Structures are given as structure tokens and as C-alpha cells.
Amino acid sequence: MSLSDIKHSLKKYEFPVSAKEALIRIEQILVGRAGTSNKQVDGAIEIISEFVFCETDRRSGRRSGGLTPLQQLQLIDIICDYLSSCTNESTKNTVFLSLFGGMESQRRLKILSILASMAVSASSTSVLLAVGVWLQQMGCSSPQSLQLVENVIRDHFYLNTSNQMTLKALATTAPQFVSNFITAVTELYLHDVQGVNKLPPKNLLEVITSWVYSNPTLCMSAQLNPAALSNGAIPMAAVTPLAGLIHWCALAPLYIETDSEMVEVAVPFKKIKIEGEKEQSIVKNYVNKSLTESELYIKLHLGVLHSLRAGRRTHGPPTAVNAQHLAGLVPLVQAYAHQLLQRGVKLHTDDKLQDCLDRIGQSVQVALANGCVYGNINNLLTLLDTLPENRLLRIIIKTHQQAI
Amino acid sequence: MNPPNKSTALSADLNNFIYGVAKRSPQNAPELTKIGLTLLKNFPAARDAVLEYFAMVFHDAVNASINQIEYAADVSTHSSLECVNMIGAELGGLGQSWAPFIAPWCINLIMDIATKKSNVPNTTLQSTDPVRVLLDVTTQNLTLLNPEERAKCIDMMLGSWACSWAVGWVGRAEPALVAPRALALGADAARAVLAHLAGHAPARPHIRAALLQLFHEGIEEDSRSEKKREVIPYLLNLASRSDVVLKALTQDIEETLTDEVVERVRAICAASRGAGGAWEGVGPAQLVALLARSHARCLLLLLRHAHSDRTCRQLLEYLLQKLEYESLFPDKTIPLLNSVAEEIDLIREKMLTGNQLEQYSLARILILVCNNLPSEFVNTISYFLQYSRNDTTLALLVRIVSGTISMHIPNDSTDINMDTERYQNLIKTGVEYALRDAMISDTQIKRIFIEDNVPKDQKTYLHYYCLNIIKLLRWENSNQVSHLRSRPFGRAVEASLYAVGGALQQYAGLLRPRPPATCAALPDMPTCHALAHVLDRVDMSGTKAPQPSVEVILKVVQATVKYFFRCLHEKDIMDKLRGVQTACRLLRKLCLHSKLARAIALRELLETAMFREEHAFGSRTSATTSTSISASARDSGDDLLIYLNQKHGPITQLTQSHTSVFHAGIIGKGVRKQNGGGNDGIPPILSTNNELLMGALMSCMDGNSGVVEGATSLSLLLVELVSPDVMYNGLPWPDEDFTKQVSIERELYMRAVLEGCSVSRAALRRAASARPALCLASALLRAVAATLLHRLRAHLATDRHSQSPELARERVALSELLATMTLGQLLPHPLCHMLELAPELTASETVQVLRDCLWNYTRDHVPSPALFTCDSTGLHWRDPSTCKPPATYTDTLRLIIQKRISTLGHLYPIMFLNLEKEVQ
Fold first, then answer.
1. Domain for residue B354, yes or no?
2. What InterPro entries does the annotation carry (chain A) (predicted)?
3. Which residue, A216, A291, B285, B596, has fewest beta-carbon neighbours within 10 Å?
4. Could you report the per-residue pLDDT of B215-254, keeping only the tens digit for each?
5. Are B772 and B890 part of one and the same domain?
6. Distance between CA atoms of B683 and B663, rounded to whole angstroms?
7. Are residues B360 and B448 in the same domain?
């Protein structure tokens, strides 16, 4: 069946149905016969644009509005149905990537965001896995990925705050997605962007801690289960969230105000703020959730250390943590130490700084000991040496420099 | 573990929603809405779609409720409204993190609805339930946003032309944010927004603040660009379209347009005169139109500046002319005039204190106001009458009154009478109100009294009022003021005589409450004089105005009498005489045309003089003297006769026994004093007060037959007042024995009263001179005669030679009686000379003469008016030639004279010789 025939047959249907039919045709085009030609791929892209996303008019003129939110929802439903019913992992991923793989379309990205968010809400494993693959293929720190992750965070940690159990369960159903998701999240928070440090909201931190702490293998899952792609596609290397999480844990003592505990609690605001209500909700929160934010970071740190141990690979080079990534911590800590000096505080008496250095030391030691670090380890050690005085760190540096 | 189950459940909701929406119908709307709401909570990602669906629901609901207004409600409206309420409740409560999504959605939806329904009137649209819900949700969510987002949302709304009402409504939550932004728009859009915003009272200060800020920025010294100067035309332009803006700008305009600001504005205007552009829209015509819609304070400001500024003066004149022209259309309301009516106190005050320009301009305005509002007309008259202190302001009042009356009257109008009648009534009400208010003011505590800086010539408010009225009346009477030709004030005062009389009565009353620190504590008399003067100036004859009613006459007469007696107590003789004269004039005026007035005046005068004010006339009453003396006697204990006479020990005293001796004296006065009491003398008739009173009495009986009638009633009154009962008050004199046996006690009593009361004796004399009035007081004469007979006879029996004071008194009384009777022509020719004879007679002779010549003659010739004939001139008199007493009555006299011819001989020819001749 030629491209024009397919188009002609699709034109018989109105929008929702036409999209459904189009998906089947696309699958046929892309997967059906071995060795798809460029021409066929182009045709599939055309069909996607015209019949799935309705970006071009039936008569090839530009459509002004695109899909209305309701139509988007219908389309998402159709895509979900399709993805759930698709049995072949690689077919699914191929179709998915061809739907959303394009870098340029903001509209599609928006639909994808909604799709991902809905999948999270509905715990739709197949969709989440596909999204996980998409994240990995796009690169977890790419702007598109970050935008998608931001959308998901806003939907599930700001707007809807009552779904913690569902979210926690995701770690077991869609670990690849979760792993990539965390990697992207670590890019969003506690990254010094022009002197502004955004702290992750507490419920997000809780969920991530719970994920990492309860599944030591989670962080490595994206690497352990490589994405199933169509023949000829180039799989992108998965980046583990470990380095980012080490960042978080190490920097947390520096940025969390000890007395900010009480304020940082994300209180779901009521319509009208009544004086005194805040205190009340804090007390409630304090009773319900035994862990404060700094305690959560401690727990997360332990979880990370566990994950590092699980990240040991029996064969092949280490892949878990990039040494350069870890080295990125050094300037931040040094800047902090510099501030302290300016204020005339002695470095070895500052508990926060020592806490931070201890955690860096622990992480580095566990990572090195388990052979999880790749890249220029020597460089890392040299940089660590420039950090302020810390006993544990000194021992570790000495030990490993001798080993090399 | 059941995530699949759960996920399918959620997907089922999603599917239901998606396909439900695809086949949307009124029936499944509530169901879908519920699903939508759960989706919103569980699938935040679906929010765009859900909100879109909700927008459809809102559109439907708006349609439904607009139609519902026109047709009866059906099921679908109901369900859609139900949905809307459900959605409203949910969206309002989603919290802060949702607000950035909900608020723009709401605003877009409002704009959508407003644009689609732009053919529906705003008010209808606003009052529909869905729109209300939507506006509530918007407001709730806007308050949750942070300032930048909020500003963005509001800008979004301001961009749309169709939903200014929504901006106004939603802006109520954030007036401080909306008002300045709205002002940045064009005049039309700003007007619409501000109008809606001002529907919410707390937003108004913000509007005002924004406007003022704009204004002040616009006139700042260093405002670089000329563009900024256009703020003034812009504001004026805006104000001309929007009442809200105008109100906000003109509120407290004195604070806004201080003198420096005005200077600055003047400079700017001078600089940009002829600049064209926006300034062309604000010529004098527009300014005047604006002023006509503005507040009274603006007018005052204009007046203040008009004094020094030519432009302002021109504007003022222009404005006045426009107002006067516009007022000719009866059903046109001019806001400025309404405002003036509201602030009328301020305006009136300005009228009193302002300069000439202000006074004249405000008078013109007041004419317009008064013409529209009769109540203000009344109040204005009342105010001026109370507070005007000089001729200028009074003249303004005249001007206002005449202007108001004649404003609407075309020359050929037929209902001119009706209209003037109506205005006359209003003026009368004003005069009355002023009187009432002045009297009330007099009883109020005033600051000047508390601070104790009362000016020397401080007068009561009523006094000022009277002075104003007097001046107006004088102007009227002068006939030189054409406006007062119709005597509006004179007629008004005449119509409210009752109130004026009441006031005089109240102020002349001694028992008036006089609270400290009020005008009531000031001396009364100046006020009373002024009131009397007012009454004096008014015509009460009924020639120019309808005859005053009975109540009015009664009131005024009573008041006048009261005033008269107060005048008698005046220290200053000139004041006293002047006051009395005024009172007499008043009485004369009143009594001239009304017998009723005369009767009441006489009675009041006499009663008061005899029983209440007797001390002023030197009278003494037996009651008071006896009580006072007995009181003093009781103090000393045993001075009373009864005690003295009981002190003679335990001997039983038999009647007629010679063993007992009694102290002599008058019961109640103790033992008789040997030299006689100094104050026992009969009070003299001739005293100033007595004469004044007589003058007053006489002035009551002015006129042709008035004197006789008046004197007659005077006599009757005297009888009534003196005689203790109603019996034996007839004209005939009974047999002398009869009096001895039956009526001697009451005659003694009447005698005592008459003797104690010089007024009554003086009045008797007056009655005697107006023959035949004295006849009617025959009972009194009889009483005197009877007691004289009795007492003289008693003296005859006891000590004939004594020159005791009692005897002297009896003689005085006798001569008075004779004089009175002679004057009244009750004793014809020979008998009348008893008067000359009496002092010469001995006691026994006197008794004889009294009995034979006086008593018996009078007994046989009943003193009745029938004896007096009326001659051609209307004068009553008794012709001596026809009423010669028979010899039986004159023989005693003749014998006595003959017996004592040596001393009394000169009387004989006078008394008898002519008679003899005639007999012969």
C-alpha cells in the first residue's frame, strides 16, 4: 500500500478515530517490513503530523490552532491504549520515539508531558517505560527532559499532593523511568544557578528517599536493562542518578538552615490563610512525619551508599559514577569555605562544613572501594585534596593515591 | 498489590470523561462534572482538558440563565447551574499552587463570555449565577497569586474591551492594583472600569488615590515631557464621562487644590493655552458642564478664586447663566444644585460671611435651589431670619424670595395667584420655623457663655429674629421696595401671629426656665420689647389680611397683657413708658375690631392687676396681710387676742358678766395699737402704675360706642371679681334693714377688697365716667354704702368725739363713694353736693344723710341704665331737669344746712335755691 493510499484511507475518518488508525498504519510502516527506507520514515512522519497531532491540515495548509485540550486528552487516551496493547517492547519504543522524538515541536512536548504525568497518575507501566526510554534517548539533562520532569513534578508534587503511595510504588513497576526521572531531577535542584539554590520540595525528597532507600538496585536499573530499540537505532548511554544524589547529600548540610526546618514544610494552602494556622499544620506534620528534612537527607545518603555498593559490576568497566561529576562538588564547597573564612569562622570548627566533607569522604570511599567510578580518578583525588581539612577525607585520599 | 486495578479504575474515569465529553448533553453534565473534578485531583495533567470542559459548562450555564430570565426554567438550566456551583466550590478551594492555572483560565473565560454576550446588558450578565460563581472563583484565585502574576492577569483583563465590568468586579479584590492601570487606558475604557470598580465602596479610596497621584504627577514642576501636561485635559475628559471620576476628584477638593497647586495649574494652563490637541476638548463650555455636575465645594472653590481671577469670574458667570437656563426645564436635575441642596448649610454660612461677589452669586444659586426644593426655600428663609445681622444679608433674602417666587412666572400666566399663594404659605412656614428655631437656640448651651466672652450687646436669638422681621416690615411699609409690594413678610407674620404671640407670652413669663450658659439667661425684656414691636408693626385689623382667628386673638391678648405687666416692672422709666405704650397700642389695635379681644383683655388686665400684680399698684389684700401678721404674731406666741383673752385665770367667765374684761383689737392682728398702724391707710388711687393700667384699660375700649360697652363690662367684671358670690349682685338696693340682717358680711368683705385694692376703685371711677356703666357695679356701691352706714353708726354708739384712724378712713371712703356716684350721675342735682357737704358733717349727721339721702334715694330709684337716655350724639346721660329727687330725699340735707347755716350756708343756694325757683 503506498503512502498516498494510506493517507486516502485515513482521510475517511474523523479526528479521534483517524489517530487510532494512523497509529496502526505507522506501526506497519515502521516495523512491518524489515529495513525501512528513509522515504517510508518520512511518510510516517507526515502521517504523524497530519493524522495524529493534526499539525497540518487535511489539505496540507497549516492548521492554526492544533488540538484543543480535550482533543489532546483523546489523543493521549488513544496513545495510551495503543502503548498498553503493544506487546513488542521494541516496536512500542520505536513508535513512541517517532511520535515524540522530534526535538523541535513544543506542542508535542506538551502532549508528552501530559501523557507522562497521566501515566504517573494511572501507574501505567508500559507508558512509563516508554517515557523512560524517551528520557534516556533525549538525555536526562536535555532541556526537553527537564521540561517534562518539571511538568511531572508540578503535577504530582505541587498540584496533587495526595498520591504518595502510588508514586512510591512506581519504583518497583517502572524502575527505568524512575531512575531516569531522578537523574533529571538532580539536575533541577541544588544546582548552583547564578547563586540561587533551589531546594527540592519536601514531598519530592521523601519520595526519592523512599525509592532509593528501599531499592538499592534502582539507580542502576536503567543501565542494567538497556532499552529495546528498533534495529539500527543508536541507544544512548544511561546516566545514573547516583552522582547527582551524592551532590544533594553532600551539599544539603550547607544549604539547609537548621531552623528552616519548620518553614520548609510544604503546607497545602487553604483558601484563606488564617493566622496561627501555619503553626497548627506544622505540629501536625511533625507528628505525622517523623523525619525532618535533614534526617531525610541522612537517610537518602545511606540509601545512596547502599546503591553504590549494589553498583559494583562483576565484569566490564565501572559505569555508575563519573569522576568528573563528583569533582564538580569541589568548587561549591570551596566557595562556601571561603565565605566562612570571610566571616572569620574557623573551618575545622564549622559543623556544617565538616558534615559535608564527611559525607563526600564516605561517598567517595564507598564508590572507589566498589569500583563504581569511571573517568579520571586521579584528577578527582587531587581536587579533593584542595578541600578544607578533614580527617576522613585525608585518610581516603591518602589510601587511594597510594593505590594508584 | 493492585496497581493494575487502580490504574484501570482511573483510566475508566478518564475514558468516561473523554467519551462523555464527545457526546456531551445536558443530561450527563453533572456526571461529567463530577468525573472532571476527580480527574482534576488525580490527573493534574488533564487539567487543560477538564478546564476546557468546565468552560463549556459555564458557557452553557450562562446561556441557560440568560434565557431563564426570559422563559421559565427547565431541567437543563437546573442541571447546568448545579454543575456550575459544584465547579465553583471546587475551584475556589484548590489552593495556592493551582491559582496560576485557575486564574488565567477564569479570566479568559470571563473575557470569552463577555465578548460572546456583548449584546446582553452588563447588569443582566453580571447577575446571572454562573458569572457570579466565576467572578468569585477569579477573585479567590487572584488573591492567592503573587503580585507579578496578579498584575499580569489584570493587564490581561484590561486588554479586553468587553469585560470592563468584570475588571471592575474582580478588581475589587485588588483596587490598588487595578485603579492606576485602568487610568493608563483611554478615557472610555477607564471610565467603564472605574465605574464598575466604584460599585464596591472600599475600592473608592484607591480610585481617588490613583487619580490624585496621576494629577500630581501631571503637574509636577519637573515633568519633562509635554505629554505629561496632558494629564489635566485627560482627567477633565474622563471626569466629563464618568461620575465616579468626577466624584473622586471633587471629593475634598480644597485639600487637592490648595493655593500652591492652583498656582501651578494656572501656570501650566497658561503655558499650554492654544496648544491644541487634548486641550481643545476642555474649553469653557466643557468646564461649565463639568462644574454643573460637580459638588458644591467646587462651586465654593470657584467663588474663592473668582475674587482674584478673571477667568474664574467669567466661568462663574457662564455657569450661573447655564444653571439658570437649565433650571427652566422642570424635569431636569442638575447635580450641582442637588449637591448645593445637600450642603446648603455651608452655602448659607458663606452667604453671611462671604464677600459681595460670593454673596450675589450664591444668592442666584439659592434661588434655583429654592425653586426646585420648597423645603429649602423654607429653610433658607428661616436661616436668614435667624442669623442675618445686617442689611446686606437681609436684602439678599428679599432678593432670593422675590427671585424664587417670580422665576417661573410668565407674564401671561393664569395660575399666578395659586402660585403666589403657595409661596406665601412657604414664606409663612419659614417665618414660623425661624421663630421656633430661634426659641430653641435660646435654650441651647452656647460656647460663648461657657468660655465667658459674651459680647456686651449680646442679644437672644429671638431678639435678632425680631430685629430682622422688624426691618423687613419697615421696608415693606416704606413702599419703596418693589419686591416687597405684596408684603410677603407682613402677611407671613400676620399668618403666624399665634406663634409670635406665644413667644411673647413665653418670654414675658416669669416662670420661664433659665438654664445657665444659654441665651435664656440673658435679660428678657429687650426680647419682649422687640417681639411687641413686631406685633405692633403688623396689621391685625383684618383689612389687608384675613381676620385673625379667635385663638390667635386670645393668644396675642394674653401675651400683650403679660407684657404690659412686665413693662410696669421696668426700672428705666423711658423703657417702661415706651413698653406700656406699645402694649396699649397693641391692645387698642386688637380690641378695635373684636369684642372678644376687648372682653378678654379687660378681664386679663383687671384680674392680673387685682390678684397677681397687686403689689405693683400698692394694693394689699386682707388675706396676705392677715397671714403675714398672724405669722409674725404666732412667732411671738401669745400676742393673739384669743390667747390674751384666755389668760385671765381659771374663773369661769359668764357672758354679759361685768367681771370679765377683754382685750380689744382685731382678730388676727392682736391687741389694738394705740396710734394706729402706719400701713393701714387706704392705698391711693393716683399712682403711676395705676394710671398706666387705666390707660391700658381705656385703650381697650377705644372707638365710638366702645367706651360705654367697655366700661359696662368693666363694671360687670369688677362685680364678678370683688363680690364673693353670685347672689345679691343685682342692681336694686334693698331695704337698709335687709342688709343688716342678711348681707352685711359679704358687704364688709367687698368693702375690704375694694379698699385694699386701689385698682378696683380707680376702675370704678373710670366706669362712673362712662355713664351708665356704673349702674352695673351697683352691688359694689351698695356694699360700700351699707358698710359705711353700719360702721358710722357703730362709731356713733361708742365714742362720738374720737378722731380715730378708723373714723378718718370711713370718711375718706365716704367721700370716695360720693364722688364716684356723683360722677356716675347716680346722685342727681341736690344730692350730688353731699360730696362737698360730707367733710363738714358730724357723725350722726353723716349717718342721717347717708340713710335718708343716699340709701333711700337709691333704693327707690334703682340705678339702672334705663335712667340714662341716649342723646343724638350717642352720649348717655341723665337729664338733671327730669330727675329731680323728691323732697323726701332732700329734706334731711336741707334741714342740716339750715341748722348749720353759718358754716354750710354757701351750699344752700347752690343746692336748693334753683330748685325752689323751678318749683315756683
1. yes
2. INTS15 (IPR027844)
3. B285
4. 777 776 655 555 555 677 777 777 777 777 777 777 777 7
5. yes
6. 28
7. no
* A268-311 pLDDT, tens digit each: 444 444 454 444 444 444 444 457 888 888 888 888 888 888 87
Please indicate whether, in this complex, the C-beta atoms of B92 and A117 are within 8 angstroms of each other.
no
Query: Is B195 within a domain?
Result: no
Cα gap A314→A166, rounded to integer Å:
34
Within a domain: B496? yes
Residues B593 and B726 in one domain: no
DSSP state of B720: H
**From A170, which residue of chain B is nearest by alpha-carbon distance?**
B3
In a shared domain, residues B363 and B491: no
CB within 8 Å: A114 and B48: yes
> What's the rounded Cα separation, in Å, for the pair A172 and A125?
10
Same domain, residue pair B349 and B431: no
Q: Which residues of chain A have pLDDT under 70?
A: 1-2, 32-37, 56-66, 103-104, 191-196, 227-228, 230-233, 257-290, 314-316, 404
**Is residue B357 located within the same domain as residue B422?**
no
The answer to whether the CB atoms of A155 and B44 lie below 8 A apart is yes
pLDDT tens sequence across B32-49: 888 888 877 777 777 778
Sign of torsion, CA B313 B315 B321 B327?
negative
Asked whether residue B655 is assigned to any structural domain, the reply reads no
Contacts of B15 in chain A (CB under 8 A): 77
Nearest Cα residue in chain B from A114 = B45
Contact B744, B794 (CB under 8 A): no
Q: Distance of alpha carbon B708 from its chain centroid, rounded?
A: 40
What is the domain count for chain B? 3
Q: Which residue has the higher pLDDT, A36 or B431?
A: B431
pLDDT tens digits, A180-210: 888 888 888 876 656 667 788 888 888 888 8
Within 8 A of B14 by CB-CB distance, chain A residues are 73, 77, 118, 122
**Whether residue B362 is found in the same domain as residue B433:** no
| B597 and B738 belong to one structural domain | no
Its domain, for residue B483, covers 403-407+417-617
User: Of A89, A67, A91, A64, whose CA–CA distance to A16 is shortest?
Assistant: A67
